[in-house]
Design a protein that fits this description.
Strand content: under 5%
Helix content: over 70%
Largest sheet: none
Radius of gyration: 25 Å
Order of helices and strands: HHHHHHHHHHHHHHHHHHHHHHHHHHHH
């Protein structure tokens, strides 16, 4: 470590030790402590308030969540520290166009609330693979999607969040990376393991509030520092580092001069770094996968009190998603103006001096602002914000991943698992996930060529489109059947993996050194690739479905859009398995009460596992099922959310037009 730091200390740029000294004052430390105590308190309160002893309680928060915590949780579980670091970094490098990734979500959130969630609720499912099993029958789709989702969790979400959180902790506390990560994961795990979805949703709400307050304050400081919006646009175009040659490299000016179209969202279709057709079509396809079929997001919506609450939550989250442009992207660009040498370095040896990587230091844009601009106390608040965003997205992922594992994979291995065993398996699985994530961090560190955040988007573009195609067709085209869906997913996955593995093997290249990846594989922009992949998957699904037998309507009532309002009884394609499970439940043994010791009772109380209540009668079970699959709305509230959705779309169109 010392060898990389000594040159920078001599040149007088702030090096990590100096920075970490700054946080060691009473104000900052007390803010951080108060913050963590508050998070724990909110988590515990939610934990004691809700019922965590049943699968529905632990994984779906008892379907009792109002619209505002749900909207906040949607936002918080999506915005991780990866967004703060990544959006600001890409903003510093190439201007405002990355905000389009955020704004694109607005439309998809409405599609989620108005079209997808009603079907999921009517189908009465907890996880997305479970929906595929009900819609198509068979087990292979469910198992395929569960395994793929868990892989995406580790490779994409957990690792990128941990990496970006670690950048902050390294800068701020001067701690060793692994120690910092370990402490973070430990705290996160404690309340996910014990509290279930309710504690995740309420702590998310608390953290969203903190996140917004902190980043608004920082935005104010940043704009004040550059002298307002006008001078910000002018100064950004001139933020060019002074050292642009060295290391025997000829670096072309386009590598270090801000792009001419920095302040435009729509960029050239061929030469742009985010081409406009790719942005309008390709990005939307990836967003369908992320917002409408992803376990982490949909699970939030399934926990709503009723349909109006779910729609209101989607609208609220849509408004919040308009903010990252101003809270993250623009401050990142300001960071380039204020710390040009560090943030915009191009010569590899200079970059290593500043932040230890050769490809560039744009990832440090936001952390630099926090450490340099904020006064004591507020700096502690911002650090808490980063930890908040990191922990909220991690808890969401852990809770959803354990849901996937227990409901879709574990029940396949142990057919007769009791509810208690399922809850314990879910909690143990979170611990296994954490171990895997820690082992994954060195891989992230190695691949930290500043490319990590383009990675998030590009990996999504290689793995997401086939899933998006299958879900869209499953809901809107009732002719599609299991064979079509399965082969569409498999062929799409193979094509996506070829591109992904090629990029990992050859590297994506940097501005000064191009990648050796063959043009016909890596030459297509990843957003265009997503469009091609989506098209191929759709054609395969439709082609094979039309060549094989259709699924009779009796199995599809309330599982696809055309039959969403039918009232006839549905015979589930997985009805046979269900009957088997119910028969097994009836022979469940009665546990005599007196065998439990004190320690065991304490453990049960902590994890919310309690004695079995009286068994519900058939009528009560029916009533409970009706409540869980009810999508009716009061006409007044339905009109209110519809009007708000139209307003939100108008605002979204306006901002796109204004910054186009």
């Amino acid at each position: 470590m010392a060898s990389t730091l000594s040159p920078s200390t001599m040149t007088g740029t702030p090096s990590p030790p100096e920075m970490s000294e700054r946080i060691r004052n009473a104000a900052d430390i007390s803010v951080i402590v108060i913050y963590f105590v508050a998070v724990m308190a909110v988590g515990l309160w939610a934990m004691l308030r809700t019922n965590r002893g049943t699968v529905g309680g632990f994984f779906l928060a008892g379907r009792d969540v109002a619209w505002w915590p749900m909207g906040a949780s949607l936002f918080a579980s999506n915005i991780g520290s990866g967004h703060f670091v990544g959006l600001a970094g890409t903003g510093a490098a190439s201007g405002i166009a990355t905000a389009a990734f955020e704004w694109n979500a607005v439309l998809l959130l409405l599609v989620l609330g108005w079209f997808f969630v009603p079907i999921y609720i009517k189908a009465g499912v907890v996880t997305m693979p479970e929906y595929l099993r009900k819609r198509f029958g068979g087990k292979r789709l469910q198992i395929y999607l569960s395994v793929l989702s868990l892989f995406i969790c580790v490779a994409l979400r957990i690792s990128s969040d941990i990496f970006s959180g670690a950048i902050f902790i390294k800068l701020a506390l001067g701690l060793d990376l692994y120690l910092a990560i370990f402490i973070l994961l430990a705290i996160t795990a404690i309340y996910t393991v014990t509290g279930g979805l309710a504690s995740v949703i309420y702590t998310d709400t608390f953290q969203t509030i903190i996140m917004l307050i902190g980043s608004f304050i920082l935005m104010g400081f940043a704009f004040a520092e550059v002298g307002g919006y006008e001078s910000f646009t002018e100064k950004y175009m001139n933020a060019i580092p002074s050292i642009v040659e060295g290391d025997n490299l000829t670096i072309s000016p386009k590598c270090y001069t801000p792009q001419a179209d920095s302040f435009h969202i729509f960029r050239d279709a061929v030469t742009g770094d985010i081409p406009w057709p790719g942005m309008i079509v390709g990005m939307t396809i990836v967003a369908v996968w992320f917002w409408c079929t992803d376990q982490v997001i949909v699970q939030r919506c399934l926990s709503g009190k009723n349909m109006s609450h779910v729609k209101a939550a989607c609208v609220m989250c849509g408004y919040l998603k308009l903010l990252p442009m101003f809270l993250m992207v623009m401050p990142g660009m300001i960071s380039r103006i204020l710390y040009t040498e560090k943030v915009a370095c191009t010569v590899p040896s200079e970059c290593v001096k500043h932040c230890g990587t050769e490809v560039g230091c744009t990832n440090y844009a936001y952390p630099m602002l926090v450490m340099e601009l904020m006064p004591d106390g507020l700096r502690g608040l911002m650090l808490s914000v980063m930890l908040a965003s990191l922990m909220s997205s991690l808890t969401s992922i852990f809770n959803s991943a354990s849901t996937l594992f227990t409901m879709d994979l574990y029940t396949k291995i142990r057919k007769q698992a009791s509810e208690r065993e399922l809850l314990i398996a879910g909690r143990l699985f979170i611990i296994v996930l954490i171990v895997i994530s820690i082992l994954w961090v060195p891989l992230v560190q190695v691949s930290q060529n500043g490319q990590l955040f383009h990675y998030i988007e590009s990996i999504s573009s290689y793995l997401g489109p086939p899933i998006a195609a299958v879900f869209l067709l499953a809901i809107f085209c009732k002719r599609v059947n299991e064979q079509g869906a399965f082969w569409g997913l498999i062929i799409g996955l193979v094509i996506g993996l070829i591109r992904m593995i090629a990029e990992f093997a050859f590297g994506t290249g940097s501005c000064s050194a191009a990648s050796d990846c063959p043009k016909f594989i890596c030459g297509v922009h990843y957003l265009y690739f997503a469009m091609i992949l989506f098209l191929i998957s759709t054609l395969v699904v439709l082609g094979i479905s039309l060549l094989t037998k259709p699924i009779p309507d009796i199995h599809l009532y309330r599982l696809c859009w055309a039959l969403r309002n039918s009232t006839e009884d549905r015979i589930d394609l997985d009805a046979e398995e269900k009957r088997q499970e119910e028969a097994d439940d009836d022979v469940d043994e009665d546990n005599p009460e007196e065998t439990r010791g004190c320690f065991r009772k304490a453990c049960d109380a902590f994890c919310g596992l309690r004695k079995k209540g009286p068994k519900l009668s058939k009528e009560e079970e029916e009533a409970q099922r009706k409540k869980l699959t009810d999508t009716s709305e009061k006409p007044f509230w339905r009109t209110v959310v519809n009007i708000n959705a139209i307003l939100l779309l108008t605002v979204a169109v306006f901002v796109h037009g204004y910054f186009a």
